What does this fold into?
Amino acid sequence: MFWLMVIFLQVKRSFYNINRSSCYFFVILCIQNKMQFMNKILMLGLGKVGSLVGVLLNKNFEVTGLDKEKPHYRYKLPFKTLTGDVSDVEFMRKTMAGYDAVVSALPYFLNKDIAQIAHDLGKHYFDLTEDVETTNFIRKLAKTSKSVMAPQCGLAPGFIGIVGSHLTKSFTKLRDIELRVGALPRYPNGLLAYSFTWSPAGVINEYLNDAEVIHNGVRKLVPSLDGIEYINIEGQEFEAFSTSGGLGTMCETFDGKVDTLNYKTIRYPGHGKLMRFLMYELILK
It folds into this structure.
């Protein structure tokens, strides 16, 4: 697997090819900045992403992993793991009470309850969600929280926003910000030329919901899977199209400051057309 991140600022282009461990830099950074307040961390979800985040956090904190099933990877995790139903609110309330912070790598639709419990117990909360509705729910909780409530700490939204915002500071006048990100198999196969490295529900959620952008200075919503464009990087052709959630709160931050702000997901050519066929022509949406 490899990660592609392309950022266009005015007429200046920067290209980043980052490895998969650095994509969760933001969640590690957020937690380390608060490390004087926490030591015991509960890592929820032990798929590929959650396991990686847990391994990285375990270098500095006492990590315990929790999932419905035991990890099935050959790699032996260097931290304690538990099994339990993360959708059971009472079980999660009792479990989370024994930790300083919780990091959720669960599918987006499970995060509201986890965030609510963390809020009620005064525990620090971090997640990797791309879902806008879930994020808005957690932002409301943060207004009355006694602890950190930090959603969207992954690659996009998350790391892409940090890099994009940082690069804007080198310009005296800013017109356009265009962000492009893709998590792609190095050796694609199949018609979709894609491999799930994180929640399939999250991927589809990005394709279903509208994407927020700034166009001609106006904040608006545009349909996901629209606006297909083609990008050639070092002789390899890719396509990119709008998807939901990747900008996080950047439209709010740059509202009134730029003419254009958008985010598109990078895929191998033909992926977007097939997804539109599945969702719209077969009416699977």
Remarks:
- The radius of gyration is 19 Å.
- The chain is about 30% helix and 30% strand.
- Residues 2-19+156-281 form a domain with the Dihydrodipicolinate Reductase; domain 2 fold (CATH 3.30.360.10).
- The longest strand covers residues 176-184.
